[in-house]
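Batch job 17 of 40 flagged for manual review because the log was empty.
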Amino acid sequence: MKHADIKAEENTSTVTQFLLLGFSDLPNLQDFLFGMFSIMYVTIIIGNSFIIVITRIDPTLHKPMYFFLTNFSFLEICYVSVTLPRILYSIWTQDRSISLLACATQMCFFLILATTDSILLAVMSYDRYVAICHPLHYPLVMNQTKCTQLAVGSWLSGLPFQLGQTCQIFSLHFCNANRIDHFFCDIPPVIKLACGDTSLNELFVFLVTVLLAAVPFLLILTSYSKIIATILRLPTAQGRAKAFSTCSSHLVVVLLFYVSASITYLMPKSTHSAVSDKLLSLFYTIVTPMFNPMIYSLRNKDVIAALRRLLIRTVQ
């Protein structure tokens, strides 16, 4: 009996690396996938870098709204760089192995940056709330010191929670199961490999998600309900249209990010499937960051005007 217990314990402790299966079930599409993901990555880097550069060099964009947008664009570059290079490497080399430490590191950075994304979106909605609902107090409330504090808080707030969550997940035993049916080390597919009862871990994931995603989302909804109420009270249609135009881009990004991420992390493990996990993860890890620069630039008159001034200076 004692010998059986020792053997069982050894079996639960031998996993030292994982296999990220990714898109290995599509062998005939590997070249296409590599090309598609490469184009997406370059598009994300160029698009978000464009927003960072143009908001830095054009004086008319030196406002709190664009300060936060610069942080958001830099965040998106970091966010996709946690997952996409690894996807490209796996497809190019067909080497799908990843060490336990590398997997934990990828998950930790991904969760920290995802939390920053969530909180920063809430901060950006608060900025729009003050600008539209309290325009006379806006320069005083959203001063440089306050903006810096909000940005730093967004980057650091999720650090202790997600470090703790990552440590908790990788303290589980994996019973020699090491095939992760996903393209990066995300929480749902990793927890699926754990043996024994993981209900407490799932509860912790749920609570952290509620705190770091659902609460910011509720703050965003509150901000926008007040914004919409204020806009509807504006006397002219032109004023209402201008106010809506400054908020619509942000609202689109919020919905794209929160809907797909919430479905992934708030659903119980038993309801997850590999296909749905991959599709939803692709959406909020790659597709949304790719479209963000287009949403914020093409729908923003200030950015378009700044781009025109830049092109005119370049031509002259």
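Reviewer: the log was empty due to a logging misconfiguration, but the result itself is present. The chain is about 75% helix and 5% strand. Unflagging and moving on to job 18.
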